């Protein structure tokens, strides 16, 4: 059964995306990470068999957009309305994902509705990273409270309440905070997102004597002693990402048009 793959995203412009990453990152750095996440996501979608690939975009496309995608504008309204409108534009089975899970792979996106009516991908924060419908029905999304810790449960209950047979996809962690970014990069060390996080490096992590959210490669004052707490964990995470990236783990990102990518 041929499936339409939908990616709902925002143009990765500073101040408009990944605002919860600031601090410790600057708005420009947060936008670069959002763009990198989008590139990884679009690459995974491009490598997945599909009837059609659609980017449902808030903003303008950039050089990060690979060939083979149709671009449609997000409608006005809340997130539930925008998701509903994305499905309304499909005339057959469709799977929708966002831009916050750059660790996604073609294997996760290859779905078959032969023995189910819906796919549901839960996120660690209580939301969901994927939603698939054999027969797209906008009313299955309208009115579902979005961006809460119970959004995923509410959406899945809506599907079950409509009598749909639901198949669950693996739970994934999406990128909202700096801790999320480190964990997700470690899960996909060969991706563009992990490379961008590594490029930003420990200079972005808050250190004694440095203003949070300001980077510039400043070396901490040795007299100040080692960083502790959140900074220590963040630096350790970045080291783990770099170490993992030197091996053979992670998925092959392959060549693609554009440079980096963005998210919802």
Output mean pLDDT.
83
CATH topology term: Spore Coat Polysaccharide Biosynthesis Protein SpsA, Chain A
CATH superfamily: Spore Coat Polysaccharide Biosynthesis Protein SpsA, Chain A
**Biggest sheet: strand arrangement:** 3-2-1-4-6-5-7
Query: What is the CATH C level class, in words?
Result: Alpha Beta
The total of beta strands comes to 7
How far the N terminus sits from the C terminus, by CA atoms, comes to 27 Å
Shape: globular
Distinct helical segment count: 7
Percent of sequence in beta strands = 5-15%
Which percent bin holds the helix content?
25-40%
Flag low-confidence runs: 202-235, 245-264
Structural class: alpha/beta
Reported CATH architecture: Alpha-Beta Complex
Q: Tell me about the biggest sheet?
A: 7 strands, mixed
* Helix/strand order: EHEEHEHEEHEHHH
Radius of gyration: 19 Å
Number of structural domains: 1
